[in-house]
Write a structure and sequence with these properties.
The chain has 2 domains: 21-81 and 217-319, DD-peptidase/beta-lactamase superfamily (Beta-lactamase); 83-213, Beta-lactamase (3-Layer(aba) Sandwich), CATH 3.40.710.10. It is built from 13 helices and 7 strands. The protein has helices at 21-35, 85-97, 99-106, 119-122, 134-142, 149-164, 172-179, 183-194, 202-213, 219-230, 245-258, 264-271, 307-319, and strands at residues 59-64, 69-73, 79-80, 216-217, 275-277, 282-287, 291-296. The strands form 2 sheets. The chain has a 5-stranded antiparallel beta sheet, sandwiched between helices. Strands 3-4 form a two-stranded antiparallel sheet. A hairpin with a 4-residue loop joins β5 and β6. The longest helix has 16 residues, at 149-164. It is globular, with a radius of gyration of 19 Å. Bound molecules: glutamic acid. Glutamic acid is lined by residues 82-83, 115-116, 134, 178, 185, 213, 278-279, 304.
Length: 338
């Protein structure tokens, strides 16, 4: 399907709400206790500074659209945001250039390929992928407004900080470590440039993207950032409108398509919610209108998705009644969440 007109205006939005605060907090603690001992997966080794992360680290944070947060474990420990910056950066670019143009320029279809695939660019004649994989994310970063690299960086830092509701900072060690081992992303940027899919100097695009990936966040920051996407674009604590409700819809759609790379279909089949993973072990899951879950646990599966993060998302999606595809036959009593 090519570009279509915008949505048909409607004032009716059907969502729902989370169970009581006591139920949410107790399930968050239960998930932490249950999955803390899982020892599958491997800490990422592609970026040397990430390889030293402790496999034991495990934090969970749930944020409700009213701003309440429910935490367990290492929820306050900072780690680099990595690919979890991608949905928020895409949102900011949609806001800056318009969501239709962003779609036409970057693509929104699944590549079915690993996050760092060069083939993702070669796959179509135009070099389109989607903003959740490195190719589309680097292209999205190159679209950031600003007359020079510093102005572009200010836009990125300000925008991602507004999602978090606090000023974010770069982890210099992670930034330098990724810069020194960035051949894969440099390759992608050259290919994008050859396909006229890069809107600034390749070196600038890569530098901005790498800095953006090195921003430090906690699981609670991420829960609040993701909750902004569940809350029509308004940050639940600061009350600031970061993006428009329509852009939230667009971003969540792309997360469903490609948030877990080539295993996005498996994720959706089981969890039934938009999600995004990152190489440092973070994961976000969004329940539109209700809230969001963020986890941090560095051991990853083969596709680069946190093992404990996926188990936690599955458990909480079920127990909190979040799966978007769930329904009960009409007239049948719907029980209170446990
Ligand atoms: N900075 C990482 C890269 O570009 C992000 C990948 C990820 O988190 O999946 O390789």
């Amino acid at each position: 399907m090519s570009s279509s007109p915008g949505p048909i205006p409607s004032s009716w939005v059907s969502t729902g709400h989370l169970p009581t605060p006591e139920v949410v907090q107790s399930l968050v603690r239960e998930a932490h206790a249950q999955f803390g001992s899982v020892d599958q997966g491997r800490v990422a080794h592609g970026i040397p500074a990430l390889a030293t992360a402790s496999p034991q680290s495990f934090g969970i944070s749930v944020a409700a659209t009213n701003g309440a947060t429910f935490n367990a474990g290492d929820w306050a420990v900072p780690f680099s945001i990595q690919s979890l910056s991608k949905p928020f950066l895409f949102a900011l670019v949609c806001e800056a250039i318009g969501e239709q143009l962003a779609r036409d320029t970057l693509g929104v279809n699944s590549t079915g390929l690993p996050f760092n695939s060069v083939l993702a660019v070669e796959r179509t004649e135009e070099g389109l992928s989607n903003p959740m994989v490195n190719a589309g994310a680097i292209a999205a970063t190159s679209l950031v407004p600003g007359e020079d690299a510093e102005a572009k960086w200010r836009f990125i830092l300000d925008g991602l900080s507004r999602f978090a509701g606090r000023r974010l900072e770069v982890d210099a060690a992670v930034y330098q470590s990724e810069q020194a081992t960035n051949a894969g992303n440099e390759n992608i940027a050259s290919l994008l440039s050859a396909h006229q899919q890069l809107w600034c100097e390749p070196r600038t695009a890569i530098d901005l993207y790498t800095r953006q990936c090195a921003l430090l966040v906690t699981a609670q920051d991420l829960a609040l950032m993701a909750c902004t996407l569940a809350n029509g674009g308004r940050q639940p604590l600061s009350g600031e409108t970061v993006i428009a409700p329509l852009i939230c819809r667009r971003v969540l759609a792309v997360m469903v398509t490609a948030g877990l790379y080539e295993t996005s279909g498996d994720w959706l089949y089981q969890i039934g919610l938009p999600g995004k993973s990152g190489v440092s072990g973070g994961m976000i899951t969004v329940a539109p209108g209700k809230g969001a879950l963020a986890t941090w646990s560095p051991p990853l599966d083969e596709a680069g998705n946190s093992v404990r993060g996926q188990l936690t998302a599955h458990f909480l999606s079920e127990r909190l009644g979040l799966n978007l595809f769930d329904s009960r036959p009409s007239g049948e009593a719907i029980g209170q969440a446990p």
